[in-house]
């Protein structure tokens, strides 16, 4: 299991992350596809090669090729949208009334159930810290799947991000 590789690399000072990673990877709040896609999208958003590689390896058998592509697309499109809409929110003024003029057709046709894609976009938006995107995607996911699913996505985002930060700092301090 590839998540075991990540857990083995987590230093003892961050053992809670190891435990949380194990618990969340077996969570039953989400369907297997929702869980796997959330982990994969968050791993990509974490910007840590080891976390991404091992997480994708761990969950690849759960995701069909279109679902894996959709999780990758969620991380990619939110990487763009989170920056743009965070700017709009921070700058205020007339920017919120202007069309974004950014291509984002994957949101309308993600290749998986729309709610799964929204869930993955929510989790990535939490990592990227975009208030407008979190608010928008949270509403859709909450209405379709309930608050427990929203919380699980946020917990996965938090743990994957923390694992990425911890492993990155451990690597930097070793060399």
UniProtKB/TrEMBL annotation:
InterPro entries per the UniProt record, alphabetical: AhpD, AhpD-like, AhpD_core, CMD-like
The EC number(s) this enzyme carries: 1.11.1.28
One record GO biological process: response to oxidative stress
Protein origin, superkingdom: Bacteria
Keywords carried by this UniProt record: Antioxidant, Disulfide bond, Oxidoreductase, Peroxidase, Redox-active center
Residues of the signal peptide: none
Claim: Cell cycle is one of the keywords in the record: no
SUPFAM superfamilies: AhpD-like
Any Pfam family hit: CMD
Ranges of residues in domain Carboxymuconolactone decarboxylase-like: 94-173
Active-site residues, as the UniProt record annotates them: 130, 133
Reactions listed under catalytic activity: N(6)-[(R)-dihydrolipoyl]-L-lysyl-[lipoyl-carrier protein] + a hydroperoxide = N(6)-[(R)-lipoyl]-L-lysyl-[lipoyl-carrier protein] + an alcohol + H2O
Disulfide bonds: 130-133
Record flagged with keyword Oxidoreductase: yes
Gene3D superfamilies reported for this sequence: AhpD-like
Annotated GO MF terms: disulfide oxidoreductase activity; hydroperoxide reductase activity; peroxiredoxin activity
Family of the protein in this entry: Belongs to the AhpD family.
Primary role: Antioxidant protein with alkyl hydroperoxidase activity. Required for the reduction of the AhpC active site cysteine residues and for the regeneration of the AhpC enzyme activity.
Protein name: Alkyl hydroperoxide reductase AhpD
Lineage summary: Bacteria, Pseudomonadati, Pseudomonadota, Alphaproteobacteria, Acetobacterales
């Amino acid at each position: 299991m590839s998540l075991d590789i990540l857990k083995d690399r987590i230093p003892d000072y961050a053992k809670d992350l190891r435990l949380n990673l194990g618990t969340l990877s077996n969570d039953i709040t989400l369907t297997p596809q929702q869980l796997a896609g959330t982990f994969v999208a968050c791993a990509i958003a974490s910007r840590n090669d080891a976390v991404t590689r091992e997480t994708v390896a761990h969950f690849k058998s759960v995701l069909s090729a279109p679902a894996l592509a959709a999780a990758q697309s969620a991380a990619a499109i939110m990487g763009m949208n989170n920056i743009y809409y965070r700017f709009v929110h921070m700058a205020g003024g007339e920017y919120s009334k202007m069309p974004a003029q950014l291509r984002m057709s994957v949101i309308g046709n993600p290749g998986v159930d729309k709610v799964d894609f929204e869930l993955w976009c929510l989790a990535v938006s939490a990592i990227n810290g975009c208030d407008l995107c979190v608010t928008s995607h949270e509403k859709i996911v909450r209405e379709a799947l309930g608050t427990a699913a929203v919380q699980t996505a946020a917990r996965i985002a938090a743990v994957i991000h923390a694992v990425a930060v911890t492993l990155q700092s451990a690597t930097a301090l070793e060399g």
